[in-house]
Amino acid sequence: MSQKNLFLVFIIFYFNLYNAQCYYQLHMYDSYGDGWNGAFLEVTRNGVHVGDFDCDASYTLDSVYSFTGATMDFIFHSGNWDSEITFAILSPIGDTLIYGPAPSDLDILIHTSNSTCPSTVSCLNPFSLNASGLTTNSANLSWVPSATDTIWNLHWDTSHINSHPVNGVGNSINGINSNNYSLTGLSPYTTYDFYVQAVCGANSNSIWSGPFTFTTLVVPGTCGAFMVELYDSYGDGWNGGYLEIILNGTIIDSNATIQNGFGPESIPIPIDSGDVLDVVYYPDQWPEENSYTIYDQSGNIIVNQNNVQPMNNGPLSTYGLQACVSCSSPISLYASAISTNNADLSWVSGGSGGNSWNLEWGISGFSPSLGTMVSNLNSNTYSMNSLSPGTAYDFYVQEVCGANDISSWSGPYTFTTNALTIAGSCGIFQIALLDSYGDGWNGGYVDIEVNYSITQTIALQTGFGPEYFDISVDSGDVINVIYSPGNWDDENSYEVYNELGVMIASEAGSNGNGPSDTYGLIGCQSAGSGTVNAPCGWFILETYDSLADGWNGSYISISLNGISTHNLTMYSGSTTQIVPFMVDSNTIIDIFYHENGANNQEQNGYKLLDNLGNIVAYELGSVNNAPSNTNGITVCQSTANSTEIINFNDILMYPNPANNLVKITSQKLISNITITNILGEVVFEKYPNQAFTAIDVSSFSSNLYTVKVIYGKNQIIQQLLIQH
User: Which CATH number do you get for residue 64?
Assistant: First the structure.
């Protein structure tokens, strides 16, 4: 037999022993401990509605008055998680009517009362029970009479499942002739229940009202008491997580937690002047649902640990909280501009008039007082340097309001420096992550692909950003940035910078959608990096949507010299989406519009701007028609800042198609030959520094390749077909 069934048998036996002849007893259980989640028992007597009853935690006891021969209907109404529900009903003479577990909606239990009570209740029960004027050992109890009743019986006991008067335990005071009563001799910081019934006559009383539950005050210290309140956002308790409360180095509570429900679970802490309080959080399951707040002796919030930092972790611990000081602790600790070796720390004054701060920092997890101390800062910012790459650090801050008035420490705030990135052959790209709301990406992230393999998965854990991540790149590498959504995706954005610090991509979320992906960024090639070998500069493609609902799956692809390099679409909204890309002299640009078959293609459009800002292509959809493709735009043939116009006859490449040797001859010295495949990957690179060279392509797979030849101040790009 399970523990729960044993407990149920005990309860039934107990109530058979102490039953009250006028009452049905409702014993309601929930196996998960979070109450009945909307389910309830409806009770009627001779067809007249008596009340609705439910369980608000693991167990609740209620009673229903009856009289001899009355027909009692107990009707179960379903809620959520009915499988957790069990209840037992005891008749007035102790018959056990077990009903459950997992009852069905609108199941009805009908029973004829076998009580020995009169067929009518001569007066109604009191209502609006209340306890006021609470002290450490007393409480003023009150209630409102239902009608003309002037005498009442009072029952009280420490709060537990058997506190109901029908149990025959606890304390009773009969014949009270006032609807209030001063209860004294109570214990400090103890929870009590009380019940009241009206005296109707010599042999007749109303049913009991209650319980009303109250808790006496804690005995304060010389300057009062702090209050720690625990909360759970999901309503199922802390699932094994707990707080350890330490006063002046001594543990006074080793397991402060919420067993079930949302909370708050309140824990008073008597304090004396000079006391130091530490609150240490120990996580278990679902720690991100947990939070706690600490109030000072005046009821002001001095700690509010309700932000998950980072995501999927519980609230931070609190150290060094000093009692009875007037100086408020700093708030909103933050670290920005994080790099491999540096970080900028900041915080906001607690508002008590302090004008200097003390800061302590160290490797994450260091014990307070054992870190590096920086005293008497006159600014609420501090720049850290000479840090170690890829290392987690903590920092704490306290505010100084006067010589003997220093706030408690705020923190720790944890941040991690960027890992050391080994530069590729042409340097490091950087991606910056930002959040417009300032709470991080809430589960969203981006995968960084280099040559179509994921090398990093990154996210902004907290704050506004920017937070920078390095991408090592070699000449010709293809970089893709692929966004995966979380919550509040439209707050997220990112920027990509090349090895020269030039922004080459920028995407922002909008209208409930995250930022778009970015494909085909080329690492440090002449047509992709902004180096001296790229004379034409940046071209820009802009997209538009007149209905502001995005392109509904349609998209544009950009092809450079027959190789697809970028895809672009609009997920939602009307905000212009932009893709910049670098081109070389005589690069041929083709733009293809890919229609997904949805309606409203006429709403879509695009515009292509050259390196000087001139519009070189502008296509808009028309009625029932999508925007047209644009083909064969040859760039930088007449712009003022281009190099001398090359002649394809300057370079001779043969044979084409080829299957063994490819010979290249030029009228000038060839400084560089680069061959890329259809994915944009560099498969061959050579620096001949002569006018003739031969390349063995016998190991190349059959496919179309792009050959770039740089000679003198010129370059030419041609297609090479290899067939075996």
Answer: 2.60.60
Task: State the number of CA atoms in the 13 A half-sphere of 671 facing the CB.
Answer: 8
Instruction: Look at residues 537, 566, 555 and name the one whose alpha carbon lies nearest to residue 479.
Output: 566
527 pLDDT exceeds 70?
no
Q: Half-sphere exposure of residue 521, counting CA atoms within 13 Å on the CB side?
A: 32
Q: Which two tokens stand for residue 243?
A: 């707080």
Residue 639 covered by a domain: no
Under 8 Å between Cβ of 97 and 73: no
Least confident of 53-62, 108-117, 215-224, 524-533: 524-533
Q: Which long-range contacts (CB under 8 A, 24 or more apart) does 10-17 make?
A: 11/88, 12/88, 12/90, 12/96, 14/162, 14/167, 15/90, 15/94, 15/166, 15/167, 16/90, 16/94, 16/96
Label residue 520 left, alpha or beta by phi (over 0 means left) and psi (-120 to 50 means alpha).
left
Flag whether 122 is in a domain: no
Copy the structure tokens of residue 308.
């998950």
Question: At CA 226, angle to CA 223 and CA 228, rounded to 5?
Answer: 175
Residue 106 and residue 165 in one domain: no
Residue 276 structure tokens:
């130091």
- The residues, any chain, with a CB within 8 Å of residue 333's CB and separated by 6 or more, are 345, 346, 347, 395, 397, 410, 411, 413
Considering the domain architecture, whether residues 602 and 527 belong to the same structural domain is answered as: yes
Q: Indicate whether 177 and 263 sit together in one domain.
A: no
Give this prediction's pTM.
Answer: 0.38
Q: How far is CA 2 from its chain centroid?
A: 39
The domain that contains 356 carries what CATH number? Answer: 2.60.40.10
pLDDT digits (tens, 9 = 90+) for 128-178: 899 999 898 999 999 998 877 899 999 999 987 778 887 778 899 999 999
Digit-coded pLDDT (tens) for 424-475: 556 788 899 999 888 889 889 999 988 878 888 888 887 888 888 888 887 7
Q: 579-623 pLDDT, tens per residue? A: 666 666 667 888 888 887 666 677 788 888 776 667 888 888 877
Tokens representing 587 are 């690069």
Token digits of residue 162: 């058997």
Instruction: Label residue 542 exposed, middle or buried (CB < 10 Å: 0-12, 13-18, 19+).
Output: middle
pLDDT in tens, 683-709: 898 888 777 788 888 888 877 788 888
Distance in angstroms (rounded) separating the CA atoms of residues 664 and 459: 47
Token pair listed for 355: 């004008």
Report the run of H or E that residue 416 belongs to, with start and end: strand 410-416
Domain boundaries, position 200: 127-215
Beta carbons of 268 and 189 less than 8 angstroms apart: yes
| 394 contacts 364 by C-beta, under 8 angstroms | yes
State how far the Cα of 541 lies from the Cα of 505, in Å rounded to an integer.
12
